[in-house]
Every structure is written in structure tokens, then in C-alpha cells.
UniProtKB/TrEMBL annotation:
<dbReference type="Pfam" id="PF20803">
    <property type="entry name" value="PaaX_M"/>
</dbReference>
<dbReference type="InterPro" id="IPR048846">
    <property type="entry name" value="PaaX-like_central"/>
</dbReference>
<dbReference type="Pfam" id="PF08223">
    <property type="entry name" value="PaaX_C"/>
</dbReference>
<dbReference type="Pfam" id="PF07848">
    <property type="entry name" value="PaaX"/>
</dbReference>
<feature type="domain" description="Transcriptional repressor PaaX-like C-terminal">
    <location>
        <begin position="198"/>
        <end position="285"/>
    </location>
</feature>
<dbReference type="InterPro" id="IPR013225">
    <property type="entry name" value="PaaX_C"/>
</dbReference>
<protein>
    <submittedName>
        <fullName>PaaX family transcriptional regulator</fullName>
    </submittedName>
</protein>
<dbReference type="InterPro" id="IPR036388">
    <property type="entry name" value="WH-like_DNA-bd_sf"/>
</dbReference>
<feature type="domain" description="Transcriptional repressor PaaX-like N-terminal">
    <location>
        <begin position="31"/>
        <end position="94"/>
    </location>
</feature>
<dbReference type="InterPro" id="IPR012906">
    <property type="entry name" value="PaaX-like_N"/>
</dbReference>
<feature type="domain" description="Transcriptional repressor PaaX-like central Cas2-like">
    <location>
        <begin position="115"/>
        <end position="192"/>
    </location>
</feature>
<dbReference type="InterPro" id="IPR011965">
    <property type="entry name" value="PaaX_trns_reg"/>
</dbReference>
Amino acid sequence: MDEETALNVALNSGAEVDTTAPAGRDRLGPLIITIFGLYARGEHNWLSVASVVQLMADLGVEGQAVRSSISRLKRRGVVRSERRDGAAGYALAEPTLETLAEGDARIFERRRATAGDGWLVVVFSVPESEREKRHALRTSLTQLGFGTAAPGVWVAPGNLATETRRTLERRGLAEYVDIFTGHHFAFGDLRSKVRAWWDLDELADLYADFVRRHRPVLDAVADRVTTPEQAFQLYVPMLTQWRRLPYSDPGLPLSLLPPGWNGVTAEALFEQLNTTLSAPAREHALAVIHGHA
């Protein structure tokens, strides 16, 4: 396969809509959120509808589907509509901005825990009359990467303490929760317990799928210069798929994971792709955004 063919294959593969999304879920929403997260925040938290439609068209998505997906994001409170200088557009809602800001460190500056970090234990009790709070707590802890050690007892590496406290406070859930830090003292094999607390097989499958989809991208661009538009077409779907992984995996110590843990391979691949593609992808995105200003 020559270089041009390899790049075309990588582009076609990289531009796939998120096929891991459950049936019935908006599969374009995550791509749109990625675009807003990457490029709207540096543009005074606003993108015109025309620029979003064009950027999504560059990913192979037609305009009506994009408009419908943005409308769903608006109904969910993820974005809000706003006109600037007579142009229709959208801004990220404040809670979305806060969530993305918290996610930046986990996605781009992630530190894997070590045994010395110990453990974070969260226990909670929610009155039956406030069942929605119980659901919100479970959702929040799952999104933070916690595993379940027992009913109502959730555990994560100790280096997530500050992030966990901040997130639960921001979501109005602190009054239902106690948080403890410490070390596993006894009993049993901790490696076996980690496998029971987290679904490591599912996590390994997610990492394997990321590597399968995106290693050809790195191979295709390694020996040739891609255009900014091609970089954008490769980068946004890659980052969209990657964004969920640092939340599914809280960065467990390698000493407690199976030998040859493929998360390490996936992390290295992400870092290489991010370094290679982010700058030219941004160049293309800003050219489109400013062209529709």
C-alpha cells in the first residue's frame, strides 16, 4: 500500500462516527462537544452555527444531522444558543465549561497512580425520598473512575481525592458523602480485589479498540506531511474516542494490573497522535471559524 492510499484509509477510518455509543444515543453529540471543547473556549466560548456545520461536514456529516444534534445538546443544557454580530451560534453552558476544564487535566496531563498513593474510599447514604441524588452520585463516581468494593462503598486511587471532592461539591452532592483516604491493610490479594472492583476485561477491550482504530492513523502520517484539513479529520474522532477512556480507567497502579497492560500502549499512541495532529488540526479549525466570523 503506497503512502497516499494508506493516508486515505486512515482518513476514512478516523472519520467514523462513534460506533461504541449505545443504540438510541446521539452519536454526533460527542464529536460536536469535542469541537467546542477544543476550539470554542479560545474563541470567547462561542462558535457560529455555520462554522460548526462546516467543521462537521469536513468529518463527513451532513448539515441537517448536525443541526438536530446541536438542538438536542441545547435541550440537555450542554450548550446555549447565542447571537453575536447578527450571526446565530452556540456557547458552552457553564456546567459544561467546568466539566471540560476538569477533564483537561485527566485527558492531557494524566498521572498514573502508584501504590504509594493509597486509596480513596467513598461511602454515601441517600434518603429514599431523594432517589435522584443516589443516581447522580453513582453516575458521578462512575464518571470519576471509581470501582465498587461493596454496596454503597466505592474505591479509587488516592491521587483522585482533590478531583473527587471538587466534583461532588460542584454537583451539590457533598452532604450525602463521606470520603476517606488510606491504604489496604488486610485481607486477601489486592490484585484479585482490583479485578473484582473494576471490569478490567471490558477496559482492555476499549483500549484494544482504540489501538486498532488509530495505530493505522499514526503509521499513515508518520512519513508524510498531512494537510491541516486531513489532520483535523484524523484528530477530532481520535480525541472523541479517547476522552471516555481516562474516566473508565482511573489510572490504576501498573503493579495491580495484568502483565503487559494494553492501556500503556494506548496511552503512548494517544500522546504521539496528540503531538502530531493537534497543531495542524487547530490551524484548519480556526481557519474555518474565522472564515465564518
